[in-house]
Amino acid sequence: MGKFCEEVRSLSLEIMGAITESLGLGRDYLSSRMDKNGMQVMAVNCYPPCPDPTTALGLPPHSDYSCITILLQNLTGLEIFHLSAHGGSGRWVLVPEVKGVLKVHIGDHVEVLSNGLYKSVIHKATLNEEKTRISLASLHSLGMDDKMSVPYQLVNNENPARYRESSFNDFLAFLVKNDISQGERFIDTLRIKD
């Protein structure tokens, strides 16, 4: 497991470098904040079989607060919310399973970092009728008290900051007071209203 964690962490830094480069910030914009001082949280989820998966949910709809999440799973069961489908009302889409493929989710931190250019992925876990589903999620973010904010390079008179800065500790404080299983999302509290 240790080698897997190291390799996935290295992959996360490469992906984040590509993201920051795509924003015109350079590949190393977050490297020291994520490599030396950042966090990696590993979550192993076990979803037992359910005779009627329509009556239960593995994980309720949510977005990850991290910068990115890298997911490995043994069975299908991950669904993402596709907002632009059905005339903008959105719909849930099952992510197909490709054996041995890692899935990468954009998290709330990247939505803030990009000033909304990238959107965090709303997703949920569903159950299987016959088999146990196991997923291994590796979440990568800044340190506990390190605040993610919209970089000044991405802000001007025509494109003001759309999000307030926040840290992982701010997210944990939100969790204590709010029920994400009821659809409350931390990212919504960070949006600056016009």
UniProtKB/TrEMBL annotation:
GO MF entries: metal ion binding
Domain of life: Eukaryota
Key words of the record: Iron, Metal-binding
Species this chain originates from: Brassica oleracea var. oleracea
Domain Fe2OG dioxygenase positions: 35-142
InterPro entries: IPNS-like_FE2OG_OXY, IPNS-like_sf, Oxoglu/Fe-dep_dioxygenase_dom, Plant_2OG-oxidoreductases
Name listed for the protein in its UniProt record: Fe2OG dioxygenase domain-containing protein
